[in-house]
Amino acid sequence: MSSKMKTKILFLIIFTFLDIGFLPRFSKYNTANKITAIISFLITLWLVLAIVKENKKKSLEVAQQQERVQTLIANIRSGAIPKIENCSLILKDGEFACNEVQTYISETKNKVVGSTGSGGGVSVRVAKGVRVHSSSGGNKKVYRDVTEKYFGSFIITNQRIVFLNNQKGFEIPYMNLTGLFSSGKDLIVQSKNKSYIIFANTPTVYEELIRAVAKN
After folding, report:
1. Contact 174, 159 (CB under 8 A)
2. What is the pLDDT of residues 59-110, one digit of tens each?
3. What is the pTM of this model?
4. Is residue 84 part of a domain?
5. Which of 89, 134, 187, 192 could, after both became Cys, cross-link 119 (CB 3.0–4.6 A)?
6. 23 by DSSP, 3-state: which?
7. Is 83 within the bounds of a domain?
């Protein structure tokens, strides 16, 4: 939900409570107070209509996006493999690029984020993704799951998938690709015992494209 929508909902709640207070005493108000109450009612009505309109617009955009995704998937399954003229990758003989997008991969590690007190040699889970470790006679180390993002170019060719980044870049020829699936906004690829989580707006399309070119 956008911050703009949250603001509208907040004001709708406020004006709804004001309207509830105005209604029982409306007939007893003088002209100025009645005008104030009417203005409040009109603002409430405008907020309701604006929220409904925005929700309909969002639903339409989602439906259109889903339709575009299904069309792309159908085209790929029918054998229409896209080709792009230019990409950041140096291509091999007989290789062509199907897609290139600027995105990021995410990596979650349990890291030390601080320390507190002292105690014995124990490890205790104090919250989701947070553990407190301590060594005998030393400070307790506080560990937390930390997700880091590495931005770069994600490229799909007819021979491999590549992520260009000076720290976490990788290259997977299709013969070494052992796992592939999409979830939410993530595309997860695995090569032997190493997996990568790639952010994508339409991960199902990338999954279909990779499966199609990997078969050829």
Report:
1. yes
2. 898 898 889 999 999 999 998 999 998 899 999 999 999 999 999 998 877 7
3. 0.65
4. no
5. 134
6. helix
7. no
